[in-house]
Amino acid sequence: MAKVAKIRRLKYINVLLQPKGNTMHPMLNIAVRAARNAGKILLRASEDLSKVEVQQKGANDLVTNIDKEAEAVIRDTILQSYPTHSIVGEELGEHKGKDDDYQWIVDPIDGTTNFIKGIPHYAVSIALKVKGRLDQAVIYDPIRGELFTASRGQGTQLNSKRLRVSKTTVLAGTVLATGFPFKNKNHMDAYTEAFKALFVHTADIRRAGCSALDMAYVAAGRVDGFFEIGLKPWNSAAGELMVKEAGGMVVDFAGGNNYNHSGNIICGSPKLTQAIIREIRPVLTESLLR
After folding, report:
1. Which of 4, 38, 199, 214 lies in the 20 to 30 Å Cα band around 223?
2. What is the mean pLDDT of residues 114-129?
3. Structural domain of residue 50, as residue ranges?
């Protein structure tokens, strides 16, 4: 009997020692389901890109029928579980729900140009704001099967493994990610100067064409930092929460919090982010520092 009691005691202790926080938040679970549903559409369409219908919705801004189909599936998946919530999507605009406290921010294909060209680097990005604060986030890369998730106060995970930003504090030896201002070519001169100011200090700078994955990779420590001009909330909202929950910092080019309005974003570990600001701020135009 004593042996049985000891075994029971050990089992009880093992239960107590199990890591907490593995249970996914219900709303994050729905976001994951929505992202995977959209990912199936992207994978199916990628098998025959000749059937993808491409339209130009603005200068250097492309949209496909697959973007719209994927966003519709995401919207349907969310509204089936949360019919009163609001949704803002890149392609289908705003769905105004009865409950303004919950707003989903959706990009069905971040990296549409890559998708159209058959370059296997794009993602589904979904974020949820609760009473104006980012609360849940999913970035799903259907090509690699990588699912990045974050919940406010619960950290960032890649396929359920906890992530942390790079520990790098100085620019020397870093690899940064960036995006060219292809929709804001009036800023090209300032961007080029900022690029040069950073490039001389870094090991390299990458431009892969998917800002959502750039920010997810910062959260994962795969790249040390990221900067880009003119992002929209659906490009950056999920990545913002992931970077912050992985111990990083997200700021605008002046080091403030105006990035949701300006779309100008820098992120990385806190000290590296400050180092990036110090290098590029002197060469930027006043309009980019607002």
Report:
1. 38
2. 98
3. 26-162
Query: How far apart, in whole angstroms, are the C-alpha atoms of residue 123 and residue 114?
Result: 10
Domain assignment of residue 279, yes or no: yes
pLDDT for 9 equals 46
Average pLDDT, integer, range 174-183: 95
Q: Which of 57-61, 73-77, 136-140, 192-196 has the lowest mean pLDDT?
A: 57-61
Q: In three state form, how does the secondary structure of 181-210 look? A: CCCCHHHHHHHHHHHHHHHCCCCEEECCCC
Instruction: Let me know whether 194 and 254 are in one domain.
Output: yes
Contacts of 71 (CB under 8 A, 6+ apart): 38, 89, 90, 91, 92, 106, 108
Q: Are residues 193 and 130 in the same domain?
A: no
Same domain, 38 and 148: yes
> Where does residue 202 fall: left (phi above 0), alpha (psi -120 to 50 degrees), or beta otherwise?
beta
CA distances to 10, 13, 160 from 2, in Å = 12, 16, 39
- Counting the structural domains of the chain, the total is 2
Site of tokens 């919530």: 85
First and final C-alpha spacing in the chain: 73
* CATH code: domain of residue 200: 3.40.190.80
pLDDT tens digits for range 232-261: 999 999 999 999 999 999 999 999 999 999
H or E element, residue 272:
helix 270-280
**Chain segment 206-220, per-residue pLDDT in tens:** 999 999 999 999 999
Residues 57 and 138 in one domain: yes
